[in-house]
Amino acid sequence: MTFSTLGLSEAILRAVSERGYLEPTPIQKQAIPAVLSGGDLLAGAQTGTGKTAGFVLPILHRLSNRTVKGPSEGRPPIRALILVPTRELAAQVEESVREYGKHLKLASMTMIGGVNINPQITRLRSRVDILVATPGRLLDHVQQKTLDLSGIEILVLDEADRMLDMGFIRDIKKILALLPKTRQNLLFSATFSDEIKALADGLLNNPATIEVAKRNATAETISHKVYPVDRDKKRPLLARLVKDHNWHQVLVFTRTKHGANQLAEYLTKNGINSLAIHGNKSQAARTRALSEFKDGSLQVLVATDIAARGIDIAELPHVVNYELPNVPEDYVHRIGRTGRAGQSGEAVSLVCVDELKLLADIERVIKRKIPQEVVPGFEPDRNAKPEPIMKPRGQGRPQNAANRRNPDSRARR
User: Fold this and answer.
1) Has this prediction a pTM greater than 0.70?
2) Residues of the chain with pLDDT under 70
3) Is the same domain home to 206 and 246?
4) Which of 113, 227, 256, 286 has the greatest count of CB atoms below 10 A from its CB?
């Protein structure tokens, strides 16, 4: 099957071809016709499966398929709203909109926090057909009465599971109340938890359902390895692995922002070019770090789970869990940054005695035992006693209504 068999316009097919894509991925084969039909869609797809093009391409086709005249006075309405959990993902999705729509007369913009709101207000005074936004900044515009959502024809909730994890459910409900009742709704999620099913039941009208990969499945092209190590020797072990194996473009996950900063500083002092990326970093710093990481000039990027959302590198070779995630499903999200589109990738985890239960939980979720290797000189102390792992504030799945809202989320959006 080729893209030309999916019913997309010549202008869109030309843009797809210019990006070097020949055949649609499994999610694209199913999602594109479903979106073109005009019905609602519930799609289960891991990161790296090509899901962004799965909704961007048919949205561009639908919006360009007819000429819609704006009101007699003022600007044309915003017609499609794509809601995403993080700034980085917003930038990535809007870039796809521009690339795939470059031969069309459609305009798009990104609406995110962490940057001056005034240029966004100015941009909204001209034509915007497709708006890619994070929930918090969008509601800031609504509060300032600089945004009109009454003309929305298509709504996309991308990475809906992560938006719920980050405590955005109240914001999403506020936004839904501002939209026209008649519209097409597309919900994409890596997992179908009970919360996602409840959100889908309230949002979607007789949706088509697509699930292209088994839930919590990892790509077959990814090799997994655990290095047992004492907690106080993780930093030197990571430095040893990077140097001995001559690793480049290494994405390293920590649980906390403070831990990310400390690790990046340690690696840099030991001759490994590293930067940290997390919610407390300015948007300019985050954008710069991502750019350097993508072009290969930055050897190691140390990230928290939320900040890493939206990192999209075609051939990222190495993902390291410096600390295992508290939620086992997040292991799948993390390592999904590598092994994309048939490429091989390596997922390495440094595991101390405190994390043995987390490791067992991960192995149960992914239904496989991860091989272990002890590095000489870093043998773990068999008599070491586990210490409790403090859950980072505002990370992981919220436990109750009182802490549903991530206290740090407004700074991150």
Assistant:
1) no
2) 46-48, 66-75, 213-221, 306-315, 337-344, 391-413
3) no
4) 286
